[in-house]
Write the structure tokens for this entry.
Amino acid sequence: MSIGTRFALAVACTALAACVSPRSFLDPGVPAVSYADLGKRAEPLNLKLTVEFQRNGEPFPRADPILKDSAQRVLRATGLIVPTDADAAGSIRIVMNNIGDLKEAEAKGTKIGLTLGLAGSTVKDAYEMKVSIAVNGRTAANTVIKHAFYTSVGNETLPPGVETVPPNVAFDRVLEQMLLRALRDMQKAGELTDRRDPRPAFDTTNRMMRTRHSR
């Protein structure tokens, strides 16, 4: 699915090398967002979820089911949105774009294989995400959210203090962080706020009182 994951799978076990376990970690330069950073709603919005996974801006539909399953878990855990296909008050659309140079990643993988893992290498998996929410004919959308994770294989020194995980786990965590940040930014702009917040926002009567585009 992601460029880093394909890179890791390509070089993990080659004909010239013993198995080399890939180690992935999130970009340490991007501040983490937690579920506690989101304001809770008295009544979550029931929204129909649609997703699109892209590679360098081109649709890659084979990855859509993985993206949708992961996004559903994150949305439900926020307490803000319940993904549903029945009795939906509106819709939420998530577009996630994987940006990178696959040829460069494969070249690095070959290098590791030829040196039996002695020459380590690290490949960056960069992502961009756009989230839009539509209720009652009006739409609120955030600016592009960016994040990345890195996958290292072979004899490679990692940044101090980073937590390493398998590439598929790193993808899930990057998606989670990007989606949490998108929702937090929407709340800061007066959208998706708790009904106790005096600023108008999406309400639970299926009306949008304010969108970022209407300001």
In short: The chain has one domain: 3-214. The chain has four helices and eight strands. Residues 167-188 form the longest helix (22 residues). The beta strands are 23-26, 45-55, 58-59, 81-83, 90-99, 121-135, 138-141, 145-153.
